[in-house]
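Q: Joint fold for the lines below.
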Amino acid sequence: MRPDSEEALAACISDTREAVSIVGGGTRLHPGEGAGARLDVSGLSGIVLYEPEALTVVVRAGTRLADVQAALAAEGQMLGFEPLGAPGSTIGGVVAANASGPRRVQAGAARDALIGVRFVDGNGDLIRNGGRVMKNVTGYDLVKLMAGSRGRLGVLTELAFKTAPLPPLRCTLCLPGLDAAAAIAALTDALSAPFEVSGAAWLPDRGALIRLEGLERSVAIRADALRDRLAAHGEVVEVQDDPWLLLRPDGGDPDGDLWRIVCRPGEAARVLSALPAPVSMDWGGALIHLRLPADEMPVLPRFAGHARRITGAAPAVLPAPDPVVARLDAGLRRRFDPRGIFAGAD
Amino acid sequence: MQMPEPDALVLSRRDAIVAALRQAVSDAVIDDPAETRAYECDALSAYRCPPLAVVLPRTTQQVSQLMALCHQLGVPVVPRGAGTSLAGGSMPTADAVVIGLARMTEVLEIATGDRLVRVQAGRTNLSVSGAVDGQGFFYAPDPSSQLACAIGGNIAMNSGGAHCLKYGVTTNNLLGVTMVLMDGTVVELGGPMGEAAGLDLLGVVCGSEGQLGIVTEATLRILPKPQGARPVLIAFDSSETAGACVAAIIRAGVLPVAIEFMDRPCIRATEAFAQAGYPDCEALLIVEVEGTAPEIDEQLALIRDIAQGFEPVEFRESRSEDESRRIWLGRKSAFGAMGQMGDYICLDGTIPVSALPRVLARIGELSRDYGLPVANVFHAGDGNMHPLIIHDANAPGDLDRAEALGADILRLCVEVGGCLTGEHGVGIEKRDLMSVQYRPADLDAQMRVKDVFDPRWLLNAAKVFPLEVSASRRDARPNLPPDAA
Ligand SMILES: Cc1cc2nc3c(=O)[nH]c(=O)nc-3n(C[C@H](O)[C@H](O)[C@@H](O)COP(=O)(O)OP(=O)(O)OC[C@H]3O[C@@H](n4cnc5c(N)ncnc54)[C@H](O)[C@@H]3O)c2cc1C
Ligand SMILES: Cc1cc2nc3c(=O)[nH]c(=O)nc-3n(C[C@H](O)[C@H](O)[C@H](O)COP(=O)(O)OP(=O)(O)OC[C@H]3O[C@@H](n4cnc5c(N)ncnc54)[C@H](O)[C@@H]3O)c2cc1C
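A: Joint structure:
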């Protein structure tokens, strides 16, 4: 199925008798997803409205992420949450995954930039929520509920975002000598100071990475202050390349499963101590990507957060969801998709 | 304001209900009519109704016991923070028990390394910042009512303030909550970075106006305090030019922490009231930027360049703490000043910034048609308008006329692509206008969420949705099994 309008999509949904799997670019289906009949949303594409002076853009869900980014860049703007989509990613897939890059520590996630949605629920009804203004508390915020819902409540057809100005200058400081655990302390220190750090990550061959962005003089002032503050953690150098794209962990290793762990930065060192060295760490330690042998489960201490297998044969989430949360989750899925059409999602 | 008939069965069992509440939490129940009167309304004081009883618990455990009890007895519950809602969100019904969080004000955890703080939900907004101020941090969302309003109320209303252009509103700064469902179940939502493993339930709880559960504890993101902040005041001889200047500043990529707008009627009133020394002009902007002194200079130089293109009547840059205070003085006393001019209704619509000139012009026309003055003061950076409709509440028909004008202005906001409320919420105030913005299917989708969290529609049920739209759900109440979700 590849509908080319909201109406056609709604008809597809109300007519279907089988479970469907919603696919945007198909770059990031989690284990277990994609088992139903393929519902391709790439036919719903194009920018509907872009008002740079109001910092808002409205886009159809099947639009390529790269096309959205190019249109914004042409006006000196960007999606502030900096999604690191693989080539082919669609904006609907980004939202459905709440996919958010390094700037999340400063600018928030996809959910925070999303200000309006249109979607077709499991009954085939078109639903609108939010709008195209940044402040909106008119009724319940289904916008947030849809972000990260991975196609379990409905098919996103149109999305409104708040955009952000492209910073004129960026500067990345690096503490090359640090291992993951030592990096956490340095990153935390950087994020606890008023320097508006817009990226705080760690990569195995690179060490701790800290990014500053903004007006020229302002970046220079903050970089100097940060060097002083971080000197106690080790040597601080400025890097010339752009290591931030490397934070997109590739799922290409057939011998291993990729795990994504979200925790409190303060707990990251303890979580890490139980595991092999991570593939990357972002958000000041709150996001850890880890590769484990296929089908192996990580042995995790009790912590506030969760781990999810994002490549591999079978879905897995640790710890098991709280039963009350699971009941609410299931209740919502049943109300938005009474026939279980989107069961093909997992 | 139409409210549903109170449940006769509940009213008839009042004494038994109060006794049961007292048995659950002996020292926290108020049922003396002289005392429950203090809870008959919030800051939308035109509408009042004393509740059946008020309970002021101290712990999540007690809230859970009380909710389970009310659920079992079929008694409606209205959550209450500080009662500063401007939308009537915490106004009770006669058959409802108000569960107030005023005694739940503790700070439970401060973790500056994780840049978060955990507090009980009755704690006031400003005192959250107060608790972390010594460590060099602050909590960003800053509603003007921040001295009084509680975090639980902020979460329920997804409140914002002048600085949310840069820092976002409550939902962007909320990481998790402990919440009690109507049946007494305690649940934790959210997680580190606000991200849970499943659906973003936290995201829909924030802004749900106390209809999904009672938030008892909240984990909030805190930020390092900026090193400094400085405002400029830019005066213009037309509102349109001021609006165009706002768009140009944003377009140029400077992102100030706040851009506030005041029009002539508002400037006049505040000058008479607070003597801030504002220029005599049609409209003015207050733009504030943050950072170290040289960073501030760099940003202000850019803003000055942009503003010059619009030939401002005056560009007044603060050079000292005292000058900054004076620039903000008029803006901060605006609402008090309007109060001196007469009674007022404060609207809260949001519009796309691009529609600003058109909307201001149309508001002027409507104001003349209705014969009621309208003053404008608002957060211009994000299009959140607060037109104030001045009227005389004692003059027969004036309030009705003011409300009709208000409804017309809000319809205008929706018409140009905006919304009915940017920060105050729907409550009872804008309940019946919801159908202007949302179609029946859109409203039904929202109500399905309530069906899941509160299947019997006992929690603050007469708010947010037009009464005729929610009627079948509210009326079905007794027939639904408690765990229909
Ligand atoms: C190696 C790699 C690692 C990544 N790691 C992460 C990560 O850890 N976290 C993260 O959030 N992102 C991550 N991403 C970003 C990823 O690219 C995004 O999830 C997104 O760009 C996928 O877009 P897509 O169009 O290919 O979506 P798809 O892969 O087609 O779909 C992703 C999910 O979204 C649903 N979906 C797609 N379109 C719609 C729609 N219109 N309506 C409703 N549901 C829809 C699908 O059913 C599926 O559940 C990673 C990307 C790569 C390549
Ligand atoms: C002078 C003045 C200025 C204001 N300025 C602003 C402003 O700049 N920005 C802004 O956004 N608002 C503003 N407001 C509106 C108001 O202060 C906010 O809506 C605030 O968040 C309400 O908080 P409260 O604790 O007083 O809540 P209440 O008025 O007690 O309740 C508000 C709603 O929240 C629910 N509720 C309260 N506590 C809980 C809880 N713990 N769990 C679940 N539900 C709960 C209630 O049922 C009700 O629906 C202003 C109000 C006044 C009077």
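Q: Anything notable?
A: Chain A is about 25% helix and 25% strand. The first helix of chain A runs from residue 6 to 15.
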